[in-house]
Design a protein that fits this description.
Aminopeptidase, alpha+beta, eight-stranded mixed sheet, globular, 5 helices, 178 residues
Length: 178
């Protein structure tokens, strides 16, 4: 499976991506914005996570994609559709990007393409995303991709020893414009 945008390729994460992605995700400024990613990320956990993600993709339980720059062929982050409910035709979109690639529109491009994949190829009725209230960049990405804020979940996740509020954003098939 391979999805493309003007500047990006979204493809399944490969074990050869581990060195580049591991360095990017182990940045404290990246990890602090991710609900399910510890910091530091244990290096020995990364390759097994990728193998598990590929197995889940084969079973259509989750779609984890490396975000790759067309210009350099380097992976710069990840975008996934997870927590899929085929019964309800919905899933959650999650994403992260290496810090040196922030502010260049890459994530908006990737999220839009993954939304298109969810609606047009998977047949979803809805996708949703979570982000921390202090993550202004993620809030902008979701807004530019057409998502609308639907809720504020107080103490929605525990990160380290702290409970953190979470915003919920959603996008319906009828609202999506490629």
């Amino acid at each position: 499976m391979r999805l493309e945008t003007e500047r990006l390729i979204l493809r399944p994460i490969e074990e050869t991506d581990v060195p580049a992605l591991f360095l990017l995700i182990n940045d404290a400024d990246v990890a602090c914005n991710l609900m399910r990613v510890p910091h530091p990320y244990p290096e020995e956990d990364y390759a097994p996570w990728i193998r598990n993600a590929r197995e889940k993709m084969e079973r259509r339980e989750q779609f984890d994609m490396a975000i790759v720059l067309k210009e350099t062929s380097l992976p710069i982050g990840s975008c996934a559709i997870e927590d899929i409910s085929w019964e309800h035709m919905r899933g959650e979109i999650g994403y992260w990007l290496g810090q040196k690639y922030w502010g260049q529109g890459y994530m908006t491009e990737a999220v839009r393409r993954m939304a298109q994949f969810a609606f047009e190829e998977l047949g979803f009725e809805r996708i949703h995303a979570y982000c921390f209230p202090q993550n202004a960049a993620s809030i902008r990405v979701l807004g530019r991709a057409g998502f609308r804020q639907e809720g504020h979940i107080r103490h929605g996740v525990k990160k380290g020893d702290e409970f953190i509020d979470v915003y919920l954003y959603g996008l319906l098939r009828e609202e999506f414009t490629p």
